[in-house]
Amino acid sequence: MIFSPLPSGLRSNSHRNVSQLEGFTLLELMLVLLLLTTLVAMAVPSYQQYLLRSHRAEAIQELIAAASCQQNIYAASFRFDTRSCIPSASTGRYSYRMEPADAAGTTIFTVIATPLGPQLQDACEELMLDQSGWRSIGGAEELQRKCWEGR
Q1: Into how many domains does the chain fold?
Q2: Using an 8 Å Cβ cutoff, are 75 and 58 in contact?
Q3: Angle at the Cα of 149 (from 144 to 151), degrees rounded to 5?
Q4: If you average pLDDT over residues 86-90, what whole number do you get?
Q5: Dihedral angle computed from the Cα positions of residues 56, 57, 63 and 66, in that order, rounded to the nearest 10 degrees
Q6: What is the pLDDT of residues 36-50, one digit of tens each?
């Protein structure tokens, strides 16, 4: 059996020239890379701010727990004991201390969280909570509400 060639309008597309191969041009790849770079450039700072806020929230929880523990001591003896109830720095993002340091039988206390490492980028700086529930920060005073929001 002999096959005759197809008319030119009905020829198969299986034999294309190299210049007709489908794919991405360099310009298309560069545009996609530019778009991805822009998205990453916007997402990374936002994610870093999220991490700072979440670590700050953990530190605030530790401060509140320490103050609550001191209030329990006060309820039993009508004095605070700053030798106990100091939060542990398990995450390594904050170090904690009580003022006045190592005082048994005091009528005041302040528990302080000092940022460490990457947390130093947080504009709130130190977080402080005292026996009356007064909350303060080491950073700019106008950030006070933002730093303690939701607490």
Answers
A1: 1
A2: no
A3: 110
A4: 76
A5: -140
A6: 988 888 888 888 889
52 φ, ψ (degrees, to nearest 5):
-60, -45
The CA-based angle 81-85-86, given to 5 degrees, is: 110
Query: What's the CA gap between 65 and 59, in Å, rounded?
Result: 10
Q: Which residue has the tokens 């991805």?
A: 36
How does pLDDT run across 98-116, given as a tens digit for each residue?
Answer: 999 888 888 999 999 999 9
Judge whether 32 lies within some domain.
no
CB 111 within 8 A of CB 98: yes
Is 150 part of any domain?
Answer: yes
97 domain residue, yes or no: yes
- Give one DSSP letter per residue of 78-142, joined into a string: SSEETTS-PPP--SSSEEEEEESTT-EEES--EEEEEE-GGGGG-TT-SEEEETT--EEESS-GG
For 150, half-sphere exposure in the C-beta direction (CA atoms, 13 angstrom radius) is 8
pLDDT level of residue 149 (50, 70, 90 thresholds): confident
Residue whose entry in the numeric block shows the structure tokens 């009580």: 98
Residue 30 lies in a domain: no
Which domain range does residue 117 map to? Answer: 55-151
